[in-house]
Amino acid sequence: MVKWKSDYEIGVSLIDEQHKKLFEIANSAYELLRNDFYVDKYDKIIEILSELKDYTVFHFKSEEEYMLSIGYKRFFSHKVEHENFINEINSINLAEIDENQDESVKDLLGFVVDWIDKHILDQDKLIIVQ
């Protein structure tokens, strides 16, 4: 399970709430991984992946608009990180997911949790200290 902690708060309530939603999506993947009742998890994995894609596009747009509104100096490098995340998600091989579903969920969960953790703590925190 992926837990939100106060260390992730950057102090901008809109962004903090959106980050919490990313944790919820990651927790959906974690719960799916633990669920032994689904013999075939492919459709559920695709649903989570789709929600992750849609929500990150929404969140990144919102975060980028905020950064522009405050004249954030590292906007372009931050935007590149967002684009790299989206590209990584878009490059996931769906056939591979179908072949090894639990391993795919573990990989997806690991990638998302690692990225969220590092990005929020290392990059998003810089937004408020500029």
From TrEMBL:
Enumerate the GO terms in the molecular function aspect.
iron ion binding; oxygen carrier activity
**Transferase listed as a keyword:** no
Please list the residues that bind Fe cation 2.
63, 78, 82, 119, 124
Keyword annotations for this protein, in alphabetical order, are: Iron, Metal-binding, Oxygen transport, Transport
Q: Where is the Hemerythrin-like domain?
A: 11-127
Q: Does the keyword Iron apply?
A: yes
* InterPro entries named in the record: Bacteriohemerythrin-like, Haemerythrin_Fe_BS, Hemerythrin, Hemerythrin-like, Hemerythrin-like_sf, Hemerythrin_metal-bd
Transmembrane portions of the chain: none
Q: Where along this sequence does the record place binding of Fe cation 1?
A: 19, 59, 63, 124
The family database entries (Pfam families) matched by this protein are listed as: Hemerythrin
Q: Which family does it belong to?
A: Belongs to the hemerythrin family.
Cited function: Oxygen-binding protein. May be involved in a storage mechanism or for delivery to oxygen-requiring enzymes. The oxygen-binding site contains two iron atoms.
Description of how the protein assembles with itself and partners: Monomer.
The protein's name is Bacteriohemerythrin
